[in-house]
Target: Glycosyl transferase
Amino acid sequence: MKIAQIAPLAESVPPKLYGGTERIVSYLTEALVDQGHDVTLFASGDSVTRAELVPVTEMALRLNPHVRDAIPYHVMLLEAVRQRADEFDALHFHIDLVHMPLVQDMIGRCITTLHGRLDLPDLPAFYRTFPHHSLVSISDHQRLPMPPVNWAGTVYHGLPSNILPARIGGDEGYLAFLGRISPEKRPDRAIRIAARSGKLLKIAAKIDNVDRDYWEKEIAPLVEQYPNVQFIGEINEAQKAGFLGGASALLFPIDWPEPFGLVMIEAMACATPVIAFRCGSVSEVIDHGVSGFIVDNEDQAVEAVTRLGELDRRGVRAAFDARFTAERMAADYVALYRSLPGARTDAARLRRERGEETELHLQAIG
Model:
């Protein structure tokens, strides 16, 4: 198929640092190319891909100090897609909702993956206005706050099977926290769990400007209080394998309706078990007692740390291989593309161009 992938412009594809949506768009795009599809990626100009790249901006908006408002650039993105829309058998949007009025006349070939939380008060009215767009959730739990809409399916995220090597041998004895410093991610819980367990906690996390006050007032004092805490800061992809692979477990002590939680399957790919709080998608991603432990409070999390020896790290990696590879993700999306009511296929177009469909029709009526 000839497929368009339309990415957000905040980060490059893949992102240089933090950026879950752009990372998934990258993994999906490259897996589709591997599977023989003709893919065009609409993204920032500093993106790297084996697909055809349409560079809408020179660089990722988050890295451009001159950008004050992202909206004009996303309007430019939509115009670039509009100019070439007729070329594609299917168009896959990863930009939430801004494109929906534009694609009404080609809605049968479009699909939109919703990557974020959907329990926000402004969203129900919007999606009631556009009820016919084919939407994809990244977990079943993510769907719960939504009004009736046209769900095309749930597709769990996936990673290239070789991007994070499994570390089966002995870990280095520390607990890991990876992601963002924010109230919903609950790094304070991670710090207390590690302290009560007598374990070193390494925190590799970015601090957005919106969360700077939370860091300074709530988390930085805890980091100073507990000598078992090391704050590393934001890490890049090259550092991730060593950071996750060396941990006894990843702590995922969230306190919000997590739509998916990419870091959980990154840890699993490294053969590192996950201790996660029962929120959002966690019960769909973690196989309790196999790839980690699902807990309801800090007491249970501390107990889970003492039970990590019950888990086979080979089994953690096997759970990843069975469910969360990019190859599986791409195959799931192709099945959805083909099921769209207006989807075309390259095979049908090539037959038309060669006149074979006319021949077949004449034979049928002859």
Remarks:
- DSSP finds 13 helices and 13 strands in the chain.
- Residues 356-366 have pLDDT under 50 and may be disordered.
- The longest helix spans residues 20-34.
